[in-house]
TrEMBL record:
Xref: InterPro entries: Flavoprotein-like_sf (IPR029039), FMN_Rdtase-like_dom (IPR005025), NAD(P)H-dep_reductase (IPR050712)
Native source organism of the sequence: Cohnella silvisoli
Gene3D superfamilies per the UniProt record, alphabetical: 3.40.50.360
EC number: 1.-.-.-
Protein name, UniProt field: NAD(P)H-dependent oxidoreductase
Length: 187
């Protein structure tokens, strides 16, 4: 059966390095389907808006998109040594209502790219902490921290050009698909 992987980019920038990295996943395995799960239209999280009917339309669409995929890959930058606000907002919307949250027990992988030298380590730590609180199944042990990303992409064409990085991403994707198939179920 074909797996469908959702892609969430933690940056809203038009020519986002992380969107370019996420796009590279779509070219790595023709047996997989990929769907972009957009976060741009989500309102700021407000529990008053999280009503019994599922809340605002962009929230309902977002939650539904997460539920329709087998797993989610989050590809995100690091802002000021932490998680981008827009991504934290999106994760908060995917965490409610607690017993039926869209990311509850959903397999999730986390990747990040930055022009700096530390490769989004702090951001990924915070993303993982939030996903743990949501009780998502985060791929353990495997980390892809892409530093110096400007040297690894062709920004004009919007493509990842560094073969070593592509190899790491391909391996990560294989581990992630295996994780989807073999997640330990705890009830």
């Amino acid at each position: 059966m074909t797996k469908t992987i959702g892609l969430i980019c933690g940056s809203l920038r038009k020519d986002s390095y992380n969107r370019i990295v996420a796009q590279a996943f779509t070219e790595m395995d023709s047996s997989l389907q990929f769907r972009w799960i957009e976060i741009r239209e989500l309102p700021l999280f407000n529990d008053d808006l999280d009503t019994d009917d599922g809340g605002p339309e962009p929230v309902r669409v977002y939650r539904s998109a997460i539920r329709q995929v087998d797993g989610v890959l989050i590809v995100s930058p690091e802002y000021n040594s932490g998680i981008p606000g827009v991504l934290k907002n999106a994760l908060d919307w995917a965490s409610t209502p607690p017993k039926t949250a869209a990311l509850l027990r959903k397999p999730v992988g986390v990747v990040g790219a930055t022009p700096g030298g530390k490769g989004t380590a702090f951001s990924q730590q915070q993303i993982r902490q939030t996903l743990d609180a949501i009780q998502a199944h985060v791929l353990p042990f495997q980390k892809v921290l892409i530093s110096q990303v400007r040297e690894k992409i062709d920004a004009d064409r919007g493509v990842l050009t560094d073969e070593k990085t592509r190899t790491y991403l391909q391996r990560y994707l294989q581990h992630f698909v295996h994780w989807i198939d073999h997640i330990p179920v705890l009830d």
